[in-house]
């Protein structure tokens, strides 16, 4: 990860086995460490912008995106299946499917990129609480704890967390057992819904009333018809 806010002029990148782009070399190796440094490709940044757009009605400010990421474009193909990217001053918000986006990271807990993650987390929680009917509202801490647990598992397995996955995990987060419905609020799963009507137990006796005597009436009518037929036969 980056150790300074110094902006890069160029970087070399490659596609990893996970089909994400990873940085292999940068123009400022003194201040930047490329170990585990991922970069978001044009297809991925377009998807992030689309997901962020749904947070606008909850207060999301899209301008924070240009502060959180540096914009790059393809310059040339380098050696060993690597691609050289050069920095641009173009806004990612005017994406034309040609921008790569590198997180502006000073450290893991502060800086523009960390602020962006906090920003989308708060508004994702606000959106979920608006669309899902909880007994108790979801909190930012609960979302962060769950995501941190997933990331720690990857770290323990020696996997670097790509920034696209880090961002999209927040933007697509839904609590376990729930799903979002674009058409309106989502209730709890059926098995958790209170107020389900209670059905009569199989062995429970049903109290009879006048509306439940049709079988008895039918038997009486049949007996009367039989007696009438017997009388006519004797005659």
User: In total, how many domains does the architecture comprise?
Assistant: 1
Strand order of the largest sheet: 3-2-1-5-4-6
Overall pLDDT confidence: 79
Structural class: alpha+beta
Strand content: 5-15%
Largest sheet: 6 strands, antiparallel
The helix-strand sequence is EEEHHEEEHHHH
Round the Cα radius of gyration to an integer and report it.
Answer: 33 Å
Helix content: 25-40%
Distance between the termini: 112 Å
Which residues form runs of ≥5 with pLDDT under 50? 183-207
Give the number of helices. Answer: 6
Overall outline: globular
Count of DSSP strands = 6
Structural commentary:
With 235 residues, this protein is α+β, with helices and mostly antiparallel strands. The protein has one domain. The chain contains 6 helices and 6 strands. The protein has a 6-stranded antiparallel sheet with strand order 3-2-1-5-4-6. Helix 1 packs parallel to helix 5. The longest helix has 21 residues, at 214-234. The radius of gyration is 33 Å and the shape is globular. Residues 183-207 have low confidence and may be disordered.
Features:
alpha+beta; 6-stranded antiparallel beta sheet
């Amino acid at each position: 990860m980056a150790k300074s806010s110094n902006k890069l002029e160029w970087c070399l990148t490659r596609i990893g086995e996970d089909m994400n782009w990873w940085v292999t070399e940068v123009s400022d190796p003194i201040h930047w460490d490329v170990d585990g440094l991922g970069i978001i490709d044009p297809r991925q940044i377009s998807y992030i912008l689309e997901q962020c757009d749904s947070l606008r009605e909850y207060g999301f400010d899209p301008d924070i995106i240009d502060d959180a990421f540096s914009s790059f474009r393809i310059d040339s193909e380098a050696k060993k299946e690597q691609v050289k990217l050069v920095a641009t001053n173009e806004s990612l918000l005017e994406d034309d499917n040609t921008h790569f986006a590198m997180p502006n990271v000073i450290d893991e807990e502060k800086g523009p990129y960390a602020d962006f993650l906090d920003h989308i987390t708060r508004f994702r929680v606000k959106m979920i609480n608006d669309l899902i009917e909880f007994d108790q509202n979801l909190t930012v801490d609960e979302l962060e704890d769950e995501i941190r647990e997933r990331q720690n598992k990857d770290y323990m397995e020696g996997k670097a967390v790509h920034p696209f996955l880090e961002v999209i995990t927040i933007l697509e987060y839904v609590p376990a057992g729930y799903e979002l419905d674009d058409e309106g609020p989502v209730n709890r799963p059926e098995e958790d819904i209170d107020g389900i009507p209670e059905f009569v137990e199989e062995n429970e006796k049903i109290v009879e009333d006048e509306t439940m005597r049709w079988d008895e009436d039918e038997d009486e009518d049949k007996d009367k018809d039989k007696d009438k037929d017997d009388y006519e036969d004797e005659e």
